[in-house]
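The protein record minuted underneath.
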Amino acid sequence: MSTTSTAPDRVFERHRLWQLHNSVMLQACDLLATAAGQLTTSAGMDKVSAVIGIAHGGTTPAHRIAARLNVQTHIVRASHNATDAPYSPATGTVTCDLDSRQLDRLTGTVLVVDDICGTGATFTAVLDALRPWAEPHTRFLTCALCRNRGAPTPPDLYCWDVADWVVFPWEDVPAGHSTTPLPFPKQVITRD
Protein backbone atom coordinates (compact mmCIF):
# COMPACT_ATOMS: atom_id res chain seq x y z
CA MET A 1 0.00 0.00 0.00
CA SER A 2 1.26 3.45 -0.85
CA THR A 3 -0.11 6.78 0.30
CA THR A 4 0.86 10.16 -1.06
CA SER A 5 0.60 13.41 0.78
CA THR A 6 2.11 16.82 0.75
CA ALA A 7 4.78 16.37 3.36
CA PRO A 8 5.91 19.31 5.46
CA ASP A 9 9.60 20.06 5.33
CA ARG A 10 11.85 18.57 7.94
CA VAL A 11 13.99 21.09 9.81
CA PHE A 12 17.75 20.71 9.38
CA GLU A 13 19.90 23.42 10.90
CA ARG A 14 22.98 21.59 9.55
CA HIS A 15 24.98 22.29 12.71
CA ARG A 16 25.80 18.62 13.36
CA LEU A 17 24.81 15.03 12.84
CA TRP A 18 23.38 13.71 16.08
CA GLN A 19 24.39 10.18 17.00
CA LEU A 20 22.23 8.05 19.26
CA HIS A 21 24.42 5.48 20.97
CA ASN A 22 22.92 2.11 21.87
CA SER A 23 23.11 2.53 25.67
CA VAL A 24 21.31 5.89 25.46
CA MET A 25 18.70 4.41 23.10
CA LEU A 26 18.00 1.55 25.52
CA GLN A 27 17.51 3.99 28.39
CA ALA A 28 15.16 6.06 26.23
CA CYS A 29 13.13 2.93 25.38
CA ASP A 30 12.81 2.11 29.08
CA LEU A 31 11.59 5.65 29.80
CA LEU A 32 9.10 5.43 26.91
CA ALA A 33 7.75 2.09 28.19
CA THR A 34 7.25 3.55 31.66
CA ALA A 35 5.61 6.68 30.22
CA ALA A 36 3.25 4.61 28.05
CA GLY A 37 2.14 2.66 31.12
CA GLN A 38 1.63 5.85 33.13
CA LEU A 39 -0.21 7.61 30.30
CA THR A 40 -2.71 4.79 29.83
CA THR A 41 -3.35 4.64 33.59
CA SER A 42 -3.75 8.40 34.06
CA ALA A 43 -5.99 8.75 30.99
CA GLY A 44 -8.21 5.83 32.00
CA MET A 45 -7.25 3.82 28.89
CA ASP A 46 -6.78 0.10 28.60
CA LYS A 47 -3.20 -1.00 29.26
CA VAL A 48 -0.95 -1.40 26.25
CA SER A 49 -1.92 -4.73 24.67
CA ALA A 50 0.57 -4.78 21.77
CA VAL A 51 3.49 -2.85 20.36
CA ILE A 52 3.87 -2.35 16.62
CA GLY A 53 7.30 -1.39 15.34
CA ILE A 54 7.71 0.43 12.05
CA ALA A 55 10.60 -1.24 10.23
CA HIS A 56 13.30 -0.77 9.96
CA GLY A 57 14.08 2.03 12.40
CA GLY A 58 11.30 1.24 14.86
CA THR A 59 12.08 -2.48 15.14
CA THR A 60 14.72 -2.38 17.90
CA PRO A 61 12.90 0.20 20.05
CA ALA A 62 9.61 -1.69 19.63
CA HIS A 63 11.12 -4.97 20.83
CA ARG A 64 12.71 -3.28 23.85
CA ILE A 65 9.53 -1.40 24.81
CA ALA A 66 7.34 -4.48 24.33
CA ALA A 67 9.66 -6.54 26.53
CA ARG A 68 9.40 -3.90 29.28
CA LEU A 69 5.60 -3.89 28.96
CA ASN A 70 5.46 -7.69 28.69
CA VAL A 71 3.37 -7.62 25.49
CA GLN A 72 3.72 -8.99 21.97
CA THR A 73 5.57 -7.11 19.21
CA HIS A 74 4.42 -6.91 15.60
CA ILE A 75 6.45 -5.35 12.79
CA VAL A 76 5.05 -3.31 9.88
CA ARG A 77 7.30 -2.23 7.03
CA ALA A 78 6.91 1.39 5.97
CA SER A 79 9.18 3.80 4.19
CA HIS A 80 9.09 7.54 3.62
CA ASN A 81 12.67 8.21 2.56
CA ALA A 82 14.06 7.64 -0.89
CA THR A 83 17.52 7.38 0.68
CA ASP A 84 19.21 7.27 4.08
CA ALA A 85 21.58 10.08 3.08
CA PRO A 86 21.77 12.90 5.63
CA TYR A 87 19.35 15.79 5.11
CA SER A 88 17.30 13.96 2.51
CA PRO A 89 13.88 15.55 2.10
CA ALA A 90 10.60 13.77 2.75
CA THR A 91 9.19 12.35 -0.46
CA GLY A 92 5.51 12.77 0.37
CA THR A 93 4.96 9.10 -0.50
CA VAL A 94 4.81 6.46 2.22
CA THR A 95 4.82 2.80 1.32
CA CYS A 96 3.38 0.45 3.90
CA ASP A 97 3.62 -3.34 3.80
CA LEU A 98 1.26 -4.93 6.30
CA ASP A 99 1.40 -8.72 6.51
CA SER A 100 -2.04 -9.47 7.91
CA ARG A 101 -1.16 -13.15 8.41
CA GLN A 102 1.16 -12.15 11.25
CA LEU A 103 -1.21 -9.62 12.80
CA ASP A 104 -3.72 -10.53 15.47
CA ARG A 105 -6.95 -8.61 15.93
CA LEU A 106 -5.94 -5.38 17.71
CA THR A 107 -7.68 -4.51 20.96
CA GLY A 108 -7.07 -2.26 23.94
CA THR A 109 -4.29 0.29 23.54
CA VAL A 110 -1.76 -0.33 20.78
CA LEU A 111 1.60 1.47 20.88
CA VAL A 112 3.03 2.21 17.41
CA VAL A 113 6.80 2.83 17.56
CA ASP A 114 9.29 4.39 15.14
CA ASP A 115 12.80 5.75 15.48
CA ILE A 116 11.91 9.29 14.39
CA CYS A 117 8.86 11.31 13.47
CA GLY A 118 10.18 13.41 10.60
CA THR A 119 6.91 14.72 9.19
CA GLY A 120 4.26 12.45 10.76
CA ALA A 121 3.33 10.95 7.37
CA THR A 122 4.69 7.49 8.20
CA PHE A 123 2.66 7.30 11.41
CA THR A 124 -0.45 8.43 9.50
CA ALA A 125 0.01 5.79 6.79
CA VAL A 126 0.67 2.99 9.28
CA LEU A 127 -2.29 3.93 11.48
CA ASP A 128 -4.55 4.00 8.40
CA ALA A 129 -3.30 0.51 7.43
CA LEU A 130 -3.83 -0.85 10.97
CA ARG A 131 -7.35 0.47 11.60
CA PRO A 132 -9.12 -2.32 9.64
CA TRP A 133 -7.46 -4.84 12.02
CA ALA A 134 -8.60 -3.02 15.16
CA GLU A 135 -11.66 -3.67 17.26
CA PRO A 136 -13.99 -0.64 17.44
CA HIS A 137 -12.70 0.72 20.77
CA THR A 138 -9.00 0.17 20.12
CA ARG A 139 -6.86 3.19 20.94
CA PHE A 140 -3.57 3.89 19.15
CA LEU A 141 -0.66 5.77 20.72
CA THR A 142 2.36 6.85 18.69
CA CYS A 143 5.86 6.74 20.11
CA ALA A 144 9.26 7.72 18.69
CA LEU A 145 12.74 8.18 20.01
CA CYS A 146 13.03 11.56 18.24
CA ARG A 147 10.79 14.15 16.64
CA ASN A 148 12.06 16.50 13.97
CA ARG A 149 10.96 20.04 14.83
CA GLY A 150 9.40 20.34 11.38
CA ALA A 151 6.81 17.64 12.15
CA PRO A 152 3.51 19.49 12.60
CA THR A 153 1.99 16.73 14.74
CA PRO A 154 4.33 15.19 17.28
CA PRO A 155 3.98 11.59 18.41
CA ASP A 156 2.15 10.98 21.67
CA LEU A 157 5.47 10.10 23.35
CA TYR A 158 9.08 10.89 22.39
CA CYS A 159 12.42 11.73 24.01
CA TRP A 160 14.22 14.27 21.83
CA ASP A 161 13.17 17.25 19.71
CA VAL A 162 15.83 17.55 17.00
CA ALA A 163 16.57 19.96 14.17
CA ASP A 164 19.36 18.00 12.53
CA TRP A 165 19.90 14.51 11.10
CA VAL A 166 20.12 11.63 13.60
CA VAL A 167 22.29 8.54 13.14
CA PHE A 168 20.72 5.63 15.05
CA PRO A 169 22.63 2.65 16.55
CA TRP A 170 21.71 0.37 13.64
CA GLU A 171 23.07 2.85 11.05
CA ASP A 172 26.62 3.66 9.98
CA VAL A 173 27.94 7.18 10.33
CA PRO A 174 28.03 8.60 6.80
CA ALA A 175 31.54 8.90 5.38
CA GLY A 176 33.11 12.29 5.88
CA HIS A 177 30.82 13.29 8.75
CA SER A 178 31.54 13.68 12.44
CA THR A 179 28.78 13.29 15.01
CA THR A 180 27.65 14.76 18.31
CA PRO A 181 26.18 12.27 20.82
CA LEU A 182 22.57 12.78 21.81
CA PRO A 183 22.51 13.25 25.60
CA PHE A 184 20.69 10.90 27.96
CA PRO A 185 17.01 11.82 27.89
CA LYS A 186 15.87 13.70 30.97
CA GLN A 187 12.22 12.86 30.47
CA VAL A 188 9.65 11.74 27.96
CA ILE A 189 7.90 14.51 26.05
CA THR A 190 4.16 14.00 25.66
CA ARG A 191 1.85 15.58 23.13
CA ASP A 192 -0.64 17.83 24.86
In short: The radius of gyration is 16 Å. Residues 102 and 190 are 30 Å apart (CA to CA).
